Recover the amino acids of this structure.
């Protein structure tokens, strides 16, 4: 319910959740945001969904004032928009060139299933805590000012800083192959998180939003597009299957795929999300993931693509299945009802794809 006090200050800034202020709705320490009146939770649905321009979807929950809220520091930097894709690509590529890949990170990537030539080609680099001043100064000498670049922020003395916890930098590319975001596979997990974006939004700088990762193979064998989740998986699928692969930074962020696919114009789209993603750790179905996958598939079918679901027996993700040389099965998801001929609605996986006819179900 909206009460008078929630209308008194309609522009109260939303704070991103963090360790010190978890989401009042789902309790997680990332992704969601809130102010004293409203939470936008990215995990727990409500009857008030909000679509972000980044393609993510959140849900509005009214808080009735039980939440402690302190206004954030608003710096002048944060009102300047994020740099263009061309500029991000230039700065991020120059940054990656200045970094190397440590031996332990090289080993970590090989364990994950990357061939040595692919590790080099994909552009993974080590973000260490050391020598950051030197890196920033030499970067500035090449590209000039770092305004609008997520991951860079000015300190009190006006000096540029490179933000981000140490780990492996994973380039995220748009359809044109421009590096528009860098994700970090953290050396040390933060709470339950293994990945962070290279972002400076917490220091008054810029965040990358939730870009998708478009990975073109060296040699593309078919007009098929694979859809996976996360930063590494599209690289493994693209390299091993010679297929154009799109990685979404979480199933809830599938909407960013649609404009990319409209540019790519594939005939067939293969959904290769983790098979066990529909099941929570305790073995119960994860309704949110299941619903996001249904929405994604319905949207792909309505865009006119032939849509297939990839499944495999023992591995967690498509990358693990490919590396372990497991058999990958493909299931057609554009199915017609035998009784009325209308399109069936995909309900998700319970071992095999499940469908319902909404027309016939309504008749009964
Ligand atoms: Zn939440
Ligand atoms: Zn029917």
């Amino acid at each position: 319910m909206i009460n008078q006090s929630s209308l008194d200050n309609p522009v109260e800034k939303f704070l991103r959740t963090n360790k010190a202020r978890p989401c009042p709705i789902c309790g997680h320490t990332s992704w969601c945001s809130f102010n004293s009146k409203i939470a936008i939770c990215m995990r727990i649905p409500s009857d008030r969904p909000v679509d972000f321009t980044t393609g993510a979807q959140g849900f509005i929950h009214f808080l009735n004032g039980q939440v402690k809220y302190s206004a954030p520091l608003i710096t002048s930097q944060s009102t300047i928009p994020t740099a263009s894709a061309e500029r991000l690509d230039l700065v991020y590529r120059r940054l990656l060139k200045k970094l190397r890949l440590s031996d332990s990170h090289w080993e970590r990537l090989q364990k994950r299933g990357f061939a040595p030539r692919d590790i080099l080609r994909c552009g993974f680099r080590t973000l260490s805590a050391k020598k950051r001043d030197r890196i920033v100064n030499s970067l500035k000498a090449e590209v000039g000012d770092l305004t609008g670049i997520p991951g860079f922020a000015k300190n009190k003395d006006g000096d540029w800083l490179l933000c981000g916890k140490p780990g492996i930098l994973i380039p995220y590319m748009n359809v044109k192959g421009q590096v528009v975001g860098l994700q970090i596979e953290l050396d040390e997990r933060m709470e339950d998180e293994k990945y962070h974006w290279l972002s400076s939004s917490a220091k008054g700088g810029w965040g990358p939003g939730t870009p998708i990762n478009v990975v073109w193979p060296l040699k593309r064998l078919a007009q098929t597009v694979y859809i996976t989740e996360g930063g590494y998986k599209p690289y493994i699928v693209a390299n091993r299957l010679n297929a154009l692969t799109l990685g979404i930074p979480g199933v809830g962020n599938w909407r960013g795929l649609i404009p990319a696919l409209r540019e790519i114009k594939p005939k067939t789209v293969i959904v290769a999300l983790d098979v066990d993603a529909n099941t929570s750790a305790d073995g119960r179905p994860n309704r949110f993931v299941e619903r996001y996958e249904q929405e994604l598939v319905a949207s792909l079918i309505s865009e006119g693509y032939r849509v297939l679901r990839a499944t495999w027996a023992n591995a967690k993700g498509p990358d693990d299945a490919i590396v372990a040389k497991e058999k990958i099965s493909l299931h057609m998801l554009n199915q017609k009802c035998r009784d009325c001929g209308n399109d069936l609605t995909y309900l998700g996986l319970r071992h095999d794809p499940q469908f319902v006819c909404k027309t016939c179900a309504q008749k009964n």
About this structure: The radius of gyration is 22 Å. The pocket of zinc ion (ligand 2) is lined by residues 337, 339-340, 342, 357, 359-360 (CB under 6 Å). Residues 213-363 form a domain with the Dna Topoisomerase Vi A Subunit; Chain: A, domain 2 fold (CATH 3.40.1360).
